[in-house]
Amino acid sequence: MSSKKSAVFYGFLIALASLVTGMVIASRLDLTPASQAGSLSIPATNSAPLTGALDATTFRTIAHDVSPAVVSIITRSKRPMQTMQFFGLNPGSPFDGQGGGQGGNRRRNQQQELVPVEGAGSGYVIDKAGFILTNNHVVEDAEQIQVKFQDMDALEDGLPAKVVGRDLLTDTALIQLTELPRQPLTEVKFGDSSQMRPGDWVMAIGNPYRFSNTVTVGVVSAVGRTPQDLAPVPGRDLEFIQTDAAINRGNSGGPLLNIRGEVIGTNTAIVSDGNSGNIGLGFAVPINTITEVLPQLKTGKVVRGRIGVQVSKFPMTAEDAKDLGLPGAMGAVVDIVGDGPAKTAGIKAGDVILEFNGKPVKNSSDLVSMVVRTAPGTTVPVKISRAGKSQTLNVKVDELNVEAEQSQTARAAQRPQQQQEEPTDTGFGMSIGPVSPDQGRQMRGTNGKAGAVVTDVTPGEAANRAGIAPGDIILAVNGQEVGSVAEVERALGKVESRHSAGLLIWRQGQGEVFVQVRKR
Q1: Which one in 44, 65, 286, 511 has a CA-CA gap of 20 to 30 Å to 385?
Q2: Domain boundary at 299, 334, 369, which?
């Protein structure tokens, strides 16, 4: 063999030996492979009917099969001292003081010193590449995330993870392990949350008070709940599954399972009496809601559409429809928010949107669902009814910026409302008085004409139920502009009992708002 060939041959042997030696050293040191980004495989949804009888082993089998996929999430962060003192959970997230930022009624002191905080929540594996679903409020402030599995020792450090994407509106976060365990991961399966009905059996698994993989069982108490105080983003509804399966602090982000052991929701919040944890009022975000945003969470950002309107939170009745000149209880009554796409297109407060992009709008929730699913930049035809006459306008959908919306709402809430003198009762459960010069100057964007300011609202009566608040300024009644307290009184006096009045009001921080209020 020539010297040149010998050199090549021995070089190959040395390289091979080095590779083998490296593999042996790695195995001796018990090194774990690094997680790869990879593509996210979203579990298929099983929409087969939930049938079959329960037996003595049903829940035992679910706990055995699913618990390996349920994880405890430990977060570390630094927060201002003022965010550390939380009082009460009536209502709010069950994870205040242990999890992240949303939920619970809070009182804050004024200290700004940053202090270390350790939080705890739950999650569940949805992909063998290490993707885990949890709540946004569990990880939103985290500087460090560790994930612990069922078979890990209590004193053992968890595996490191990173945030892939977060969504405020559904309080959902997708995280991924940056180191995988030695054994292959167990994944959950998805059920169809739209199938769930009150009375259906469910199981919750999570990390309450750091008792990892705790199993609780109950039933679905209600579906389609939209408690305002539990909404992750104030002013924007999120439908929950309500359950009496015991959920406590630390359960946040864990799965709610049907009797096939499939995830039908992510446990998110509780209502409590403030002195204890679970009292049988737990809430989970439906898995169907989460799967809609999962592909975008993988990209790191969820993009939604907006057109710059607010919708009534109260269902339209047949009487309301008649007063609005509609043939039936259909569509969504809207208010205009800022100088957005709807205002640019010519939509006005009090208009009823009947169709969006060629599809009929059944109610307010239907409209919201259609808008947020529309890609920003898309121009769509919107059919409206105004004073009983229909027309179609073209609206260019904008992108929803939740953070900016929250900041605007917070600033508006901080502005003091001025009290007025000489209140006059209206018969709608509210008192009105004259508009002060200061309030008149604040009404930028209107024609400057104002009838009366709401000075007081009676709890439980029509105005209160419709969302009218002290400080609201009445601009028009049933489409007719009003310029004094007397004109408002006369216009409201013409409304017959059990019929509704359409009020165009100006509200500080929001601008013109349309409210439908029924006379008793």
Answers
A1: 511
A2: 299
